[in-house]
Each structure stands twice: as C-alpha cells, then as structure tokens.
From TrEMBL:
This is beta-N-acetylhexosaminidase. It comes from Methyloprofundus sedimenti. The keyword Hydrolase applies. The active site is at 295 (proton donor). One of its GO terms (cellular component) is membrane.
Amino acid sequence: MIGLKYVLAVFVVFFTLYTTACAKSADVLHPKPKFIENNSMKVQVGQAIVLDSSKEFFNKYKESVNSLTHTAAKYGEKTQNLFKVTVLKTEQFPHLNEMQRVYLNKPEAYLLEVKTNSVVISAKTDRGLLNGLSTLEALTEEQQGSLSLGKTIDYPDLKMRVLHISMWPCTLEDFKETIRLARLEHFNTLIWLNHFGVELNSLRHLKINNINPWTIEQFKEMVAYVKQNGLEIIPELKLLSHQDKFIGEYYSQYMFNKATYDPRKKALYKEVVFPDIDELLLLTGATKFHIGHDEVAGWSEWHYRTKVLNKGEQQLPPELFFEDILTLHAYLKQKDIETWMWSDMFYTKEEFPSMKKAGANLNGMNGYAELRSKIPKDIVLNVWHYRGKQDAFPTAKVLANDGYKVLGATWKFEDTTVNYARYISGLPQNAEGMIATTWYGLSGEKKIEVQDIIKFSGKTFWNAK
C-alpha cells in the first residue's frame, strides 16, 4: 500500500507524449545511473505536481518535494491535465528480472519508471526513494522538462558520501542552493564547520564582522532544511589546532603557543569547549561530532616563516595532543556521540614515501605517529589527501586494517578524487566512504568553484568503482 495520498493542489505532474529531441543543459546535475533502459520516445513535464506518497515520506523530505514542484513549474509546459508521480516504498518488484532485483537490494537503491501517463519511484528505503526523487528533479532541470520513457535503476558504490562546508561567508539563499545541489548529487552527510557567522550563545566571544550574521532561529531553520534534503549533520569545531582566532584572540591564558591551545588548562573545556559542543549538539540533534585536530603547528619550518608560530615557540608535545583527544572523546562518548577527526598527525613521509605528492598532510613527526595505535578504536578517522595522481592511498588502508573506520577526503583536484574514491571502494573492511571538502565560503567569488567540487565529487563518490 502506498499510504496516505498527498495532493499538492496547485502542483500536478503532467506528461504528454513528446517525440522531438529536447534541449539539454550543459551541466549534468546527477550521477550517471548504473542501469538505464529507455526508448526514443519522450514525455514533457507539466508545470505542476500531484505527488502520491506516504505521510512519513512527505513530512521527512518536505523541502525536497517542494524543490521538485518548483523545478517542474520552471521547466514544464502549461496544461490542465492531471497526472501522478507515485513514490512507493516496497519490498516487491515482480516485473523486474533477477539481476535488476539484485540491484534494488543494494543500500539506497531506487527504481525510476517514466511511462506515457505516469511516473513511479520505487525503493525499499526512504533514502532510496529520495535518491529517485532527486534524480527525477535533476533530469527535469537538465532536459528542460523533457524525459525519456523507460526505467532507471541505480545505487551508490559508497556508504557515506559526505560534503564538508566552511559556511562563512554565506547568505541563507546560497546555503540553500548549496544543500539542494548536494542532494541532487546524492550526498547523504554534511560536515558543517561552525565558527563564524552564527550568533550562537556559546560563541559570543567571536567577533562577527559580517553585517548580517545568522540568528539562532535562522540557524535552526537551516538545520531543518538540511535534514529535509536528506543529509545527516555532523557539526565540526576546529579544536586544539588552528586556534589563533577561535581561542587565541580571546583566551590567551589557555594557549600553548600562537596556534594551539593547552590541554593542561582544564578550565578551557568548562568555559569554552564543552558549551560550544553542547549547543551545537542541541541545535542539530547530531549523533556524530567532528573535533578537527589537523595540522598541529610546529613540524615544519614553514610555520615559522609564515608566522603561524612565533619564533622560539615549540610544537605541542604529542602526549598533550593525545590527552586532548581522550578528554573530548570521553565527553562525547558519555553523551553517546561518535567522535570524528582528521588523521594527518598519525603518519609520516618516511613511513609512506609513495604518498609524498598527495599533499602536505603526512604530519606525524616528533612522535605523533606513535599515537596511532593508542587512540580509541571507535573514533572515525578522516584521511585527507588533496593532490597527486597516485592510484594507492595506503594511509587509509593501514588505519582501516588497524580497526578504525575511515573515510577518504579530497578537495578540488579531480584525478585525486577519482583515484581515491576508487581505492576506498576497494578496501575490504572499515571503509565508510568519502568526504568532499570545499574550504571556501559558500558565497562570494569562490561560489562557482565550490559548486564544481560538489558536482564532480558527488558523481565520483556515487560511481566510485
């Protein structure tokens, strides 16, 4: 049974038989499906939608449904005829062959069928249904309202397809545009770096220079928007390292050096760190939290030449790095929150000589790499390598073999993204997926570059093998 029918009165999906070629958008907004069976006949989308779905699905993904209706209104043709798009959660696919049914047993798989007088999206899970709905929307936009008759079956190669964003500078409109694009590219998780730009009570010590910072209510609205686009939220705070702004400018008494706070100063956690974590967990309802911990300054002369550290300052000793991890992990674990962190401080160039060209991120000198076997095994390690054309990424394999869940992380270099995603998809154990980092604000001059990263990475992560 489909369940409760939801008719969006003004929005009806209408398809008329359409055999001429349609204009195609230059940008493809969704990953290439693994199985397509289409014919030369086409149908033209109308300007409105009738959606037949369960109440649960409609409420869970309301913003995604609304986005589809707006896309149909933009690209569809005017008509008074009514037509239905059915979103059906089911375990049975009797009209498919055995191989097609095997495909639909995959996590997040979906079946999208475009017929002469109907569209049906079927899947075993809500997540699969959302993927199908998003593909329908992307096709409607790409093909300017013209779709081929036939069926599409698809599923992801990677379990977690994560987008990492640095949200500031960022308008509400650009944030929504970014999240919608991430859904169309089938990302299912968002690491949300929150330091500047939101008037959170726990972050009032930060001076927000932008004239339009988000209020808490606006932040909560965006949290709901992310969830209704099907992305799990993982808040991130840059903790321990990169502290010149977050802690250094306001709590100099807690600093070990210019860039790193001192884990021996226990009042720091009670006064600043734990309240920040608590507020973000409360507002997002997250079950995972990212604690940062990348690039602990002091392992390179570059840190002194560029004044990341002052002359004469020393790198934080590895035992204090380890102490901070244990403190944060214990705090999160007693709240039943999974800890995520960057892993670059756990290996060296000497240990992995083949990885020297994979970006400056083999930073575990001065005894840091020796901590690798000591940190709790339930911490999820994010193994970032941004450059290079190598096929193998043995840092991720070693960590996975040691019993840690790992995700690869890439940036804007496409060869690295393709090769790393393929490598992660081939690991036999503990490979959770891939992360696309952006490291630019979502508004401003880098907006198009961020969108290009999302488009390319989303397609690559979905079809990693």
